[in-house]
Each structure stands twice: as C-alpha cells, then as structure tokens.
C-alpha cells in the first residue's frame, strides 16, 4: 500500500488524468518574471538597505564624538593598568585559576575585558577600526566583490556550478587576496591576517566538518540503517521522544548543523515507513532539540566556540557545560510540552 504522502492518484481531481502521452500533456513554460522576480526584488531590497546605511556621508566614516573619545582613553588606561599587574601563577593554581588568568571587578571590566586586552597585548587577536584608511576606490570595489559573491550564493548553479561551499570558500580567499592588493596599490592600510583572525573557532569548525563528512561516508556501511532502526517505533510519541533525545545528545557532542544534516534523511524515511502524511512536526522537533542541545557544550555551535575563544583562559569545557545544564534542561522540558 502506498503512503498517502506519495499516493498521487488517490488525491487527483476527476479531470486530472495521469497520462504518458506527450501530446495530451502540453508543458506550460513558466515566465522569467515569475521565476526570477522574487530574487530580483530581494536584490533590490539589499541594495536599497546598503545605500541607506551609507547615509549622506557617501561612505565617509565620521570622526569619533567626544564621548567615544573619552571611552577610548579610559579603555587605554585600563589596558595599561592590566598590563602592569603582576601575575602570581602559583597563587592562581591554588584557587583553580589557570596560568596567566586574572579576574577583574565589574568596575575594571571583568574577566572578558581582561582576556580581550591580554589577547591584544600578546598580538593573538587585535581589532582596530581602519575603515577610514581605505580609499573610495577600495571601499566601492570591495562592495562590488561582496555583492557579486552574494549573487553567486543566491544562484549557485547559474554562474559558478561549484556549490555554495565552494563559492563561500572562493569568496573568502578572494577578499583576503584583494585586501593585500589594496595594500600594495595604496588603496588600503596594512593588513596582518594573523592579528585579526581568531584561529581557534576555524580549527575546531574544520575538524567538526571533517567528522561530519566521515559520518556521511559511513552511510555505505549501514550507519543510517542502524540509526533508523534504533529510532523506529510503532507508537508515535515514543518515536518522537527517541528522535528528540538522540538529536539533543548528538548536538551537544557534535555541532548542531551536522546532526541536522545526518538526522533529516532518517526522520523522513521513518515518516515514509509509517505512512505519516505530514513529516513537518518531526522535522521541527529535530530542529528545535538540536539547537537546544547545542547550547550545552562549547563545541555545540559556532557561537559558543567564538565566546570560548575570547575567554578560554577562564572557561573550561566542564565549567561551560555545568553553567548551561539547567537552562538546557528547562528548554528541553518546555520544548517537549509544546511538541
């Protein structure tokens, strides 16, 4: 018996007869306006927003106000005071603090502020606003390149049939190379990628992506069949509970994007096997639980990785998980009740 989800003949109108005769089935060609109209409207909206954000200055960044200047001077004084602090690493170890860490009070900026200054002092990560040092040609040419790759991402099979990951990688490499070209031609300031790129999240994301590719390759060895059989159950609520539990645990161990990619096909196959006409509730449960579970650990999603990379001196893996376990449990309970 065919599933109602795919039982086409059952839901056809009386006058809609399926036939293989090409003469009786004229193909109506969709108009170009209907096909590309929404995308062109989106492009026009993005252009309008960018033009509005440029404002009446025409892209010229205004000077800092007196308030911002005072904030900048105060931050420099705090940074100087922190760098003059002596580090007693033996005392830090006795209270469980890692070597080189120093907790500041809220008035002094807190631990995140100190870690940011320490990174800046050690040239591990430096953020300096140099937008005013670009020439008009440099600003507009970078905008054109960015917009071009944005169009490529919107239509991946139109100009560059290499897929969205390849287009994103090519765009990133192009911007880095063009940034160096602007520096050499005098249209941009000095560029030191080591000081402006945080490497820890990139390394971890690269490793997690390799893990995802490996898991996808294991489909040939029957991994997905075993996963589908372990999640299968004749009772709907038990099947939903298994999917939600496995996606929550998996997204806490591996990045949530990987879990969604791996589990989506399994969930759809289970819906077809049990003749479930609407698989959207199961997919929504997968999406919500994977996002909730990813908040438990620092490796669950890129946002957590970025936070930890800026404060890794003071946040361990277990400390991060222990602080997030109660919110994750509460969110899981609320999500289960709503589902």
Automatic annotation (TrEMBL):
The keyword Cell inner membrane does not apply. The keyword Transport applies. Residues 156-337 form the Citrate transporter-like domain. One of its GO terms (cellular component) is plasma membrane. GO terms for biological process: transmembrane transport. It is a multi-pass membrane protein. The chain crosses the membrane at residues 35-55, 165-182, 194-215, 243-268, 280-300, 320-338. It comes from the Eukaryota. Pfam families: CitMHS. Keywords: Cell membrane, Membrane, Transmembrane, Transmembrane helix, Transport. It is found in: Cell membrane. Its main location: membrane. This is Citrate transporter-like domain-containing protein. It comes from Attheya septentrionalis.
């Amino acid at each position: 018996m065919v599933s109602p989800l795919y039982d086409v003949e059952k839901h056809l109108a009386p006058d809609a007869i399926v036939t293989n005769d090409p003469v009786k089935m004229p193909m109506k060609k969709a108009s170009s306006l209907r096909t590309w109209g929404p995308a062109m409207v989106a492009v026009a909206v993005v252009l309008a927003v960018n033009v509005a954000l440029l404002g009446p200055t025409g892209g010229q960044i205004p000077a800092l106000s007196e308030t911002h200047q005072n904030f900048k001077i105060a931050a420099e004084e705090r940074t100087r005071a922190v760098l003059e602090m002596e580090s007693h690493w033996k005392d830090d170890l006795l209270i469980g603090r890692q070597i080189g860490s120093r907790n500041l009070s809220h008035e002094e900026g807190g631990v995140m502020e100190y870690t940011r200054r320490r990174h800046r002092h050690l040239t591990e990560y430096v953020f300096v606003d140099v937008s005013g040092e670009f020439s008009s040609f440099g600003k507009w040419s970078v905008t054109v390149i960015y917009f071009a790759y944005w169009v490529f991402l919107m239509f991946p099979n139109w100009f560059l049939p290499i897929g969205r990951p390849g287009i994103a990688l090519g765009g990133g490499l192009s911007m880095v190379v063009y940034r160096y070209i602007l520096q050499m031609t005098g249209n941009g300031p000095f560029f030191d990628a080591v000081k402006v790129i945080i490497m820890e999240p990139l390394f971890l994301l690269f490793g997690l992506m390799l893990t995802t590719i490996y898991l996808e390759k294991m489909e040939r060895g029957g991994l997905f069949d075993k996963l589908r059989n372990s999640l299968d159950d004749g009772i709907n609520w038990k099947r939903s509970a298994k999917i939600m539990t496995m996606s929550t645990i998996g997204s806490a161990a591996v990045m949530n994007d990987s879990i969604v990619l791996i589990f989506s096909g399994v969930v759809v196959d289970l819906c077809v096997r049990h003749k479930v006409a609407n698989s959207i509730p199961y997919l929504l449960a997968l999406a919500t639980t994977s996002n909730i579970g990813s908040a438990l650990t620092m490796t669950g999603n890129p946002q957590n990785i970025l936070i930890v990379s800026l404060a890794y001196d003071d946040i361990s893996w277990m400390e991060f998980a222990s602080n997030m376990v109660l919110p994750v449990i509460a969110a899981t309970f609320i999500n289960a009740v709503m589902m």
